[in-house]
């Protein structure tokens, strides 16, 4: 087996018994890290600490769902709209929440109805992959959760 000791020194191919003796001398465990095609890779380490770090990484990866923001303009192009809908569908599929917000500038404030129609269209297009968490017509924002 290929052996890496607790100080990250590579000892190359070594007999299993010799590796166990080295691990016992260091008061650590001999852990097989990877089972390669030719030689397995073993490491001298504290196995309890290794398990703790793996569980900690796993908890970080499965943390609470994040909120993804998508900002639109009331006169967004059809291709841009489709891309944003596809991305939102992917995010909802992964368990994230998606917040759509329509930004108005200048004279666009006179056409708030177009912005609310756009948000209603977003809700309709994403009804299969998400459900409406909140719909704020005044702030021109809709938040969708997976479901």
Automatic annotation (TrEMBL):
GO cellular component, one term: cytoplasm
Chain ranges of the Translation initiation factor 3 N-terminal domain: 3-60
Signal sequence annotation: none
Residue ranges of every copy of the Translation initiation factor 3 C-terminal domain listed in the record: 66-135
SUPFAM superfamilies the UniProt entry points to: Translation initiation factor IF3, C-terminal domain, Translation initiation factor IF3, N-terminal domain
Gene Ontology biological-process annotations: ribosome disassembly
Region (Disordered), start-end ranges: 50-70
Keywords: Initiation factor, Protein biosynthesis
GO molecular function terms noted in the UniProt entry: ribosome binding; translation initiation factor activity
InterPro entries recorded: T_IF-3_C_sf, T_IF-3_N_sf, Translation_initiation_fac_3, Translation_initiation_fac_3_C, Translation_initiation_fac_3_N
Entry superkingdom: Bacteria
Family affiliation: Belongs to the IF-3 family.
Name of this protein: Translation initiation factor IF-3
């Amino acid at each position: 087996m290929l052996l890496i000791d607790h100080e990250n020194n590579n000892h190359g191919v070594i007999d299993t018994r010799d590796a166990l003796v080295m691990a016992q001398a260091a008061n650590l465990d001999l852990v097989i890290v990877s089972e390669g095609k030719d030689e397995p890779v073993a490491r001298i380490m504290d196995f309890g600490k290794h398990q703790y770090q793996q569980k900690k990484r796993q908890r970080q990866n499965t943390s609470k769902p994040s909120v993804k923001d998508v900002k639109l303009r009331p006169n967004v192009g059809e291709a841009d709209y489709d891309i944003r809908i596809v991305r939102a569908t992917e995010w909802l599929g992964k368990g994230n929440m998606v917040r759509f917000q329509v930004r108005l500038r200048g004279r666009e404030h006179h056409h708030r109805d177009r912005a609310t129609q756009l948000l209603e269209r977003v809700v309709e297009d994403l009804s299969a992959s998400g459900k409406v968490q909140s719909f704020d017509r005044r702030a021109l924002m809709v938040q969708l959760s997976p479901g």
